[in-house]
Fold this sequence. Notes:
Blueprint lengths: L4 H14 L5 H18 L5 H13 L6 H4 L7
Amino acid sequence: MPAPADDITEQLQAEIERTPARYRSLLLRLVHSFREGVEADEPWPSAGESFREGWTDALASRVRTVDTLWGGIDAD
């Protein structure tokens, strides 16, 4: 199961803190380039696009109630 976003952020912060200060500007450039590359491959949808997609799903009955989304999440 993937780690929660907060855990990933903590791991990233720990790696940054372990990186010698003289290399942090290079690390920042690397992270920035990575983010730009990811966005270029698959741009993030605008709020309007996200709403339209959700509305289309709702009209087509491709939705689930919130209580069903977490079913089995605590399973061993």
